[in-house]
Write a sequence for this structure.
């Protein structure tokens, strides 16, 4: 993983984890222990799925850049499907408070997306490869390059 990828991942994960911690505290105060467990599960699910998606997308961008957009679309559909499957499996669970889980999942995911957008806007990533200095010096005088 390149340093800018790791930095972006960190800039996304920290606000999401802080938001999850706040959600756990609020859920524990409002819904008790089951609310806290639901918030923890929602935070973990959101952070894991979003981090996995970011990692896969960055790896695809490096190895198969021509598939980047298609992979991004497929990845977001897969993330949506994984969350849907999790929701369907735990639809009637009594292990945790489902409202606290759902709200935490939504809020942490939105915070991750906002943090990722901010990180990409702040990153100074070159989109054109600069010419090496040797190429400029070796070109004869008066050449079109």
């Amino acid at each position: 993983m390149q340093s800018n990828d790791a930095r972006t991942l960190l800039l996304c994960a920290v606000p999401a984890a802080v938001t999850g911690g706040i959600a756990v505290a609020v859920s524990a105060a409002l819904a008790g222990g089951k609310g806290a467990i639901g918030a923890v599960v929602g935070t973990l699910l959101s952070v894991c799925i979003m981090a996995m998606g970011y990692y896969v997308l960055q790896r695809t961008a490096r190895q198969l850049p021509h598939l980047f957009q298609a992979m991004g679309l497929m990845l977001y559909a897969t993330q949506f499907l994984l969350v849907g499957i999790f929701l369907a499996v735990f639809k009637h669970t009594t292990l945790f408070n489902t409202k606290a889980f759902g709200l935490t999942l939504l809020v942490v995911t939105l915070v991750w997306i906002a943090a990722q957008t901010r990180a990409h806007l702040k990153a100074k990533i070159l989109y054109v490869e600069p010419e090496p200095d040797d190429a400029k010096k070796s070109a004869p005088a008066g050449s079109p390059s």
Summary: The radius of gyration is 21 Å. The chain is about 80% helix and 0% strand.
